[in-house]
């Protein structure tokens, strides 16, 4: 979005039209402001929707709004109360960040040097932890477990949590990326059930495959429910994705399928750190706005989580809209630069773009400006977004969460273009990171062996670990986890294949025709046949399947 764009994203609704009565317009706006002040944003939203509906019925054309201002989607007065213990969750999130970074760092010993990713998990820790503490249901939950497609490069965070949970040992953490040389204690770099059949549910990392598989998993869950095979009404599918990954054709290619089938059991969480492998995703554009328009146009519910709670007061005082204007006009490359600089730099180059916005932060120190968090690192904002996603009906939801790659790792890592490839921490980095997280590790322990920085576990009887385990117990067990106990399914008998084994005799038979004959016999199987309903995009009659219409029918999520 060029810097010469209009003051507000929505200004395109009016800037090509003539205001024939400016005074009347002001009265309507003042009336709407009064509605918000008196009854809140939720009531105002309903009134706006009712007016839009009425306008359509009266043939008053109103353009579709696919992109909104560069602010959070959920108004402050509609945010739910955060139900967790903020202090405890913050403390063990620090343990997780430390152990994840140290695990990758320890794997860079000169005799090993296997690589890995330090910065990825640092940027998504809050997104993961809000889900793991309050939303993601484990396999023992009465309503069934959720399916979570994790962002592959962030696997150190999953291992770090499993270590605190008592599921992985220090020896296993030291086997990161050394599956063969440290067998049987090696850990794969990326999620893969074949490498860890008791741990990972789904393979991810192959760019674009995660989004596709998540959509199909949500579709299959809905199929199981609609067919009466399994009650999946309480289960959700979550996919954690990167904003750069969304450029893959596979990442966007099936969005309309999820919308068409109203898969409100599906939630995408896109980690919008504005950064891909070699630099900004859209250095001279705005990837969040692009994704919002794309998903909304495809029929998805969109929730933007761009700013932490520290911004709420500033936005509330932004009466003339200057701060929102600057947020709208600031390009991703600049947002990335701000987090690689200082609070003073942000004061001069971001807030300094307007006298009004510079005055907004006049009473704030440079350190306070630097501490203005982005939304992906604020568990209040993330909790509100996840709750809205799980409660939304009739559409899949995408949460666009703006964060910083390498968050909390220090100035050498945060928002740096090269941070994705950085595998090692200097002694200075380690000490600064330890101090930032308040990890009780001494200088002597760090100085004695650069690549031997210790993992930290407060002990299984500590308040943090008891709380962490209690949250998972209440939600139905550990995630990720791959149980092997499955209900037994009676497979088709030999009779189902007898006709096919005879062949077609002297009659020529196409493979499709042969398959339809087998399918017909499988459908007649008493214990197995009810599980089969053809999913046919077209040409059922061509292949002789029209006899299935009155009996087996063709599956459709809206009715057969």
Structural class: mainly alpha
Low-confidence sequence ranges: 1-8
In the CATH hierarchy, the architecture of the largest domain is 3-Layer(aba) Sandwich
What series of H and E elements makes up the topology? HHHEHHHEHHEEEHEHHHHHHHEHHHHH
What order do the strands of the largest sheet run in, or round the barrel if closed?
1-2-3-7-6
CA-based shape: globular
On the 0 to 100 scale, the average pLDDT is 89
- Write down how many β-strands occur, each being a DSSP E stretch of 2 or more residues: 7
The total number of structural domains is: 3
- Tell me the name of the CATH class of the largest domain: Alpha Beta
Query: For the report, how would you describe the main beta sheet?
Result: 5 strands, parallel
The N- to C-terminal Cα distance equals 46 Å
């Amino acid at each position: 979005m060029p810097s010469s764009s209009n003051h507000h994203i929505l200004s395109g609704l009016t800037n090509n039209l003539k205001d024939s009565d400016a005074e009347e317009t002001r009265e309507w706006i003042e009336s709407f402001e009064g509605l918000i002040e008196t009854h809140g944003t939720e009531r105002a939203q309903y009134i706006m929707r009712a007016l839009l509906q009425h306008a359509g019925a009266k043939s008053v054309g109103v353009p579709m709004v696919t992109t909104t201002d560069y602010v959070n989607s959920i108004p402050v007065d509609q945010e739910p109360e955060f139900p967790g213990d903020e202090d405890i969750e913050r403390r063990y999130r620090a343990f997780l960040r430390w152990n994840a970074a140290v695990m990758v760092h320890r794997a860079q010993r000169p005799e090993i040097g296997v690589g890995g990713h330090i910065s990825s998990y640092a940027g998504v820790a809050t997104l993961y932890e809000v889900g793991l503490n309050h939303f993601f249901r484990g396999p023992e939950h009465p309503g069934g477990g959720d399916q979570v497609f994790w962002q592959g490069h962030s696997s150190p965070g999953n291992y770090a949590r499993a270590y605190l949970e008592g599921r992985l040992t220090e020896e296993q953490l030291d086997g990161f990326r050394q599956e063969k040389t440290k067998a049987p204690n090696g850990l794969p770099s990326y999620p893969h059930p074949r490498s860890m059949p008791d741990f990972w549910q789904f393979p991810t990392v192959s760019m674009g495959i995660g989004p596709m598989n998540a959509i199909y998993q949500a579709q299959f869950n809905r199929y199981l429910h609609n067919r009466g095979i399994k009650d999946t009404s309480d289960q959700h599918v979550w996919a954690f994705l990167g904003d750069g990954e969304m450029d893959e054709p596979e990442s966007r290619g099936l969005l309309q399928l999820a919308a068409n089938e109203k898969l409100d059991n599906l939630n995408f969480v896109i980690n919008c750190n504005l950064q891909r492998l070699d630099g900004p995703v859209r250095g001279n554009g705005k990837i969040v706005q692009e994704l919002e328009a794309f998903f909304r146009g495809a029929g998805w519910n969109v929730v933007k989580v761009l700013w932490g709670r520290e911004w709420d007061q500033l936005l509330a005082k932004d009466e003339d809209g200057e701060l929102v204007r600057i947020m709208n006009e600031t390009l991703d490359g600049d947002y990335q630069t701000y987090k690689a600089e200082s609070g003073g730099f942000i004061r001069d180059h971001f807030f300094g773009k307007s006298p009004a916005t510079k005055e907004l932060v006049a009473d704030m120190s440079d350190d306070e400006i630097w501490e203005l968090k982005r939304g992906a690192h604020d568990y209040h904002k993330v909790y509100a977004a996840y709750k809205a996603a799980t409660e939304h009906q009739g559409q899949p939801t995408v949460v666009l969460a703006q964060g910083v790659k390498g968050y909390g790792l220090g100035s050498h890592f945060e928002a740096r273009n090269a941070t994705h490839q950085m595998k090692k921490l200097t002694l200075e980095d380690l000490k600064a990171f330890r101090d930032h997280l308040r990890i009780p590790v001494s200088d002597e322990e760090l100085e004695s062996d650069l690549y031997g920085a210790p993992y930290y576990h407060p002990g299984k009887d500590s308040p943090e670990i008891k709380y962490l385990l209690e949250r998972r117990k209440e939600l139905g067990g550990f995630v990720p986890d791959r149980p092997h106990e499955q209900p037994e399914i009676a497979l088709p008998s030999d009779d189902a294949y007898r006709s096919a084994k005879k062949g077609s005799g002297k009659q020529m038979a196409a493979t499709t025709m042969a398959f339809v004959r087998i399918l017909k016999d499988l459908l007649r199987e008493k214990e197995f046949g009810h599980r089969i309903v053809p999913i046919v995009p077209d040409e059922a009659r061509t292949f002789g399947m029209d006899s299935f219409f009155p009996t087996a029918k063709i599956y459709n999520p809206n009715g057969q």
